[in-house]
Design a protein that fits this description.
The protein is of the alpha/beta class. Helix content is about 35%, strand content about 25%. It contains 12 helices and 16 strands. Strands 4-3-2-1-5-6-8-7 form an 8-stranded parallel beta sheet, with helices on both faces. Strands 9, 10, 11, 12, 13, 14, 15 and 16 form an 8-stranded mixed beta sheet that branches. Strand 7, helix 6 and strand 8 form a beta-alpha-beta unit. Helix 1 packs across helix 11 and helix 7 crosses helix 8. It is globular, with a radius of gyration of 20 Å. Bound molecules: nicotinamide-adenine-dinucleotide.
């Protein structure tokens, strides 16, 4: 069975999700929704994605630009099995109320929406089974996804008593020319905790986690420094073994010349990944340390792409195309060429 996926919000995340869905044999993009006839609209057509417009009013701009659209978002939603909403923060809620709920269409939302938008905040490694058959799922943000990916397997194996984590966040995305900071380090927020810890709790409700966050003048990646106290003693080798085996985490080494987020992105370019994406969480091998029984490590998050495989798995879970998380994760990762299956 091949299900029809609509993509509403064809931007940074949406474009990547559309391409990842297209690699699967159990789902297919049946249309993407654009608001304006920009270069992304031309690319969508070249890729063979039927193009839809979000409102009738915006249709004129497409015809003036010589772009033929297949219809409006409502036409697309009538034909799809599920929609992935990757519109800007807050628009997902409007779309839910105006479109998806009245039209009874299942939807996958992104982390910029409040958790209340969905029946479950989703991370494939942590809670895939809870998502089976749900009508509304929310793939948590890039930072929350990064925290969940590495903390979840450690918690399963050793039990985590407490986590303190510092998020060093990229200012804007690379193409976001209007935002900063350009020359400042900004506590964001200046209070403790940042929203990331509570957001992790929407996926892992029992985890005792406190996060603080700062924004810095870079566009490439986020970085996290993480400190965890575990219930049971663990060695550095055992933690490295967890990261080695877990999906969607890659261990990188400073001694191999990967000393910064710039080097990680250079490495991803050399891997030949589409758009130079690194969908996995990159953990520095040398940063994994245990001191006085507490675990320390540093990880980098490619914010534009790490949530993409999660969106594919969320579609499978919501439509119950696959009940076994490991099977879905492996299928997604093999098709996308991630980690173990290079
Ligand atoms: P974006 O601005 O790059 O893309 C959003 C797209 O939606 C744009 O093409 C915009 O024109 C379009 N759009 C605007 N209004 C619309 C409407 N009413 N209907 C349909 N499309 C509309 O945004 P993004 O960075 O891809 O973020 C999308 C979601 O993903 C947000 O919830 C965000 O928080 C989340 N997210 C973003 C990142 C990231 O780093 N960019 C990472 C993880 C999660």
């Amino acid at each position: 069975m091949v299900v029809g996926v609509a993509l509403n919000g064809y931007g940074t995340v949406g474009r990547r999700v559309a391409d990842a869905v297209s690699l699967q044999d159990d789902m297919k993009i049946i249309g993407v929704v654009k608001t304006r006839p920009t270069f992304e609209a031309h690319h969508a057509i070249k890729k063979g994605y039927p193009l839809y417009v979000n409102t009738k009013e915006n249709r004129k701009a497409f015809s003036e630009a010589g772009i033929e659209v297949a219809g409006t978002v409502k036409d697309l939603l009538e034909d799809c099995d599920i929609v992935v909403d990757a519109a800007p923060d807050g628009i997902g809620m409007e779309n839910k109320q105006k479109l998806y709920k009245p039209m009874k269409v299942k939807a996958i939302f992104q982390g910029g929406e409040d958790a209340e938008i969905a029946q479950l905040s989703f991370n494939a490694i942590c809670n895939y089974k809870k998502a089976l058959g749900k009508d509304f799922l929310r793939v948590v943000s890039c930072n929350t996804t990064g925290l969940c990916r590495t903390l979840c397997p450690i918690d399963k194996r050793f039990g985590i008593k407490k986590v303190n984590a510092v998020m060093i966040r990229r200012g804007p995305d690379p193409a976001d020319i209007k935002k900063g900071p350009v020359n400042a380090i900004v506590p964001d927020p200046v209070t403790v905790p940042s929203h990331h810890g509570p957001d992790v709790n929407t996926v892992l409700p029992g985890l005792n986690i406190t996060t603080v966050a700062l924004k810095v003048p870079t566009t490439l990646m986020h970085m996290h420094t993480i400190n965890a106290t575990m219930n049971n003693d663990a060695s550095v080798e055992e933690i490295l073994d967890i990261f080695e085996r877990a999906p969607r985490i890659v261990l990188i080494k400073a001694k191999d010349g990967i000393k910064s987020t710039a080097h990680i992105m250079e490495w991803a370019r050399d891997l030949g990944r589409a758009r130079s994406d690194l969908n996995e969480i990159a953990v520095w091998h040398e940063s994994v340390n245990i001191r006085d029984g507490e675990l320390y490590y540093m990880q980098a998050i490619h914010q534009e792409s790490n949530v993409v495989p999660e969106n594919v798995d969320a579609i499978r879970a919501a439509l119950e195309l696959e009940t076994d998380p490991a099977v879905s994760i492996k299928k997604t990762d093999m098709t996308m060429g991630l980690k173990k299956w290079w």
